[in-house]
Task: structure prediction
Amino acid sequence: EAQVTQNPRYLITVTGKKLTVTCSQNMNHEYMSWYRQDPGLGLRQIYYSMNVEVTDKGDVPEGYKVSRKEKRNFPLILESPSPNQTSLYFCASSPRGVSGNSPLHFGNGTRLTVT
Amino acid sequence: AQKITQTQPGMFVQEKEAVTLDCTYDTSDQSYGLFWYKQPSSGEMIFLIYQGSYDEQNATEGRYSLNFQKARKSANLVISASQLGDSAMYFCAMREREAGTALIFGKGTTLSVSS
Result:
């Protein structure tokens, strides 16, 4: 089944403890992205990757890192999480680059709580 | 200025009635795409429908149609014959050609369908 898989689904952690949210897609998509969703703010892009070894900042990249060593994987790293990073996180992928009608395929989300 | 504006935080409709969810957008690009996603209470993001800026016909997908008025920069989602399962948050999103592949999301509209 074609899908984007994020893990974990739920994560509670403490301030400053490094964490990684994994994301993997099995559709051979070139483009991958991370979003965070907060009440009243919709979804905002954190980082994206156009292809292997190519990553770039989105609208809200502060406090996050990503890497794209393989086409299928795009982990999100929080080196020193803070409470304002408590949010619902989505990984997404798409087969095309700059334009086109390809929708983003989303993972099921990771609900992160930082205390 | 917001790129995507959804002015209705919440909408209420009875089963079998049609409902229109509003979306206006702001772009200076000539080539862009508009998307609608559904987010049920379980949290996943489900792609519903796409409209390209050069498409002359309004997009339709089953009970979903997009009322695209380019001069007014609006892309309203119309759901015909509402069902209880349509209760969810709905997001309008735009991809601008010049801005790469990022989808810019509105803040969403919560739709509640009652029997």
Summary: Residues 24 and 112 of chain A are 18 Å apart (CA to CA).
